[in-house]
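FORM 7B - TANDEM STRUCTURE REPORT

SECTION 1: FIRST PROTEIN
SEQUENCE AND TOKENS:
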Amino acid sequence: MGRSRYVVAVVVLVLAAAVLIVFKLGPGSTPRGQPPLVRLADITRFDADFNAACDQVRALVLLSPM
């Protein structure tokens, strides 16, 4: 029974690594009509984009891995 648990654990880890790689390296896509995804490396760009939409409802969601 110990060997089968080891095999299952290895398979789960390999699948988890594959999913992580696909999500990390895969291209991001957005629905038609929505601006493309961007990485927020520069806070001034975010600030300008956020303030440019002052006549619309805006939402800010912060996600953290921990």
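SECTION 2: SECOND PROTEIN
SEQUENCE AND TOKENS:
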Amino acid sequence: MTSRAISRLRFPFGKPGTSWQVLRNLSGTLFWILVCLCFGMGIIHYPMVAFAAARRGLLTWWEIVLPSLLPFFIFSELLMGLGFVTLLGAFMEPAMRPLFNLPGTSAFIIAVSYISGFPLCAILTSRIRHDQLCTREEGERLAAFTSNASPLFMMGAVSIGMYNNPALGPLIAGIHYSSNLLCGIVLKFMSRHQTINPKPANHARQGSKADLLLRVSRLREQSFGSLLGETVQKTTTTLLTIGGFITLFSVVIGIMEAAGWFNALIGILTPVVQALQVDPAMLRAFLHGLFEITIGINEASKSPGGLMQQLLVIEVLLAWNGLAIQAQVAGMMMGSDLRVLPYLLTRCLQVPLAAGIAYLATLLLPLQNYLAWPAMASRFTATWFPWVAGVYLSAGLVLALFIGCILSSWWRRLKNMIIIR
């Protein structure tokens, strides 16, 4: 049949191609209706399981997520409202363009990603996109590779709380952070070349840095007390939303476990895992971690497999983020025009990168030295170690970017002098 004959056919929903679009939308709607009905039937059929899972999710939010995100969220929002991020962007633009092809304001979000955790950087990226401090494509790339786990989680909850071994914390965090930075560099080469930044360039085109700070600071319009109250109110609402996502996925995992879905998947995949000489207990940890990384990593740390297998599973789950974290990131980006697809594709890129770096680390580093580390998981160590390590990581990154900014500025001046001569 020719294309002209096809164009003369009558479709039940209007123009050619419209029927497929309607069918696709209808099938997607029916699919999610079926998922919600199954979820509701699961809660009715397993009420005690759903209650226990919801309680576990709320405890995770209260004990881990809230204390790790609340101070940094308030701190970051205040700095953005006071104009510090725009001022930093004017300084860091020469360094961030060659490294990641991103505006200078992204340096603040990259630094925050090393002392906080997901989904805070997605929230801050949506903010700078709302303020037109980056383009849509830049914001999507920035949110994609700054989705880091917090040092409090990796060096506190995982290395000390689960392994009782503080030496594993820097190793786990180093592999996770390096794989994320590699994703940022890879995304730079896949991005369109950007030479002009939309709004920061307009801010900084005239006057000194002090004039720039005065122009962008919100203290011109409101008092600091009003800014602080607005920040706390916005932070509380966002953190409650994050708590809802965590509780929801905790209940989903509990119902799937009670209904036997995980056992069925494990039964199907066990022969493949055994052929690869991997402990079958790792499979259960991996499947749970696909939904919620805290549960998956905790099960991986308790599995009888060796430290190399545990480290590989942990890094893969940290790179994947878990469906619960992915839903939180998607929810935090809904108020902007940023798309979630680049973030999800970057997760698929970071998983093999993290696994490869973890495998090389297990080959090059003597893991028996980490196992022989004395147990120092006292309350004092668990309190200060993750925070200090995260501050050192972020401070080192900012210092490296600042040095790169200075060297880049000097190189441009030297090149201009040579051209003039």
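SECTION 3: OBSERVATIONS ON SECOND PROTEIN
The CA atoms of residues 80 and 152 lie 23 Å apart.
The longest helix spans residues 379-420.

SECTION 4: SIGNATURE
Preparer initials: ____
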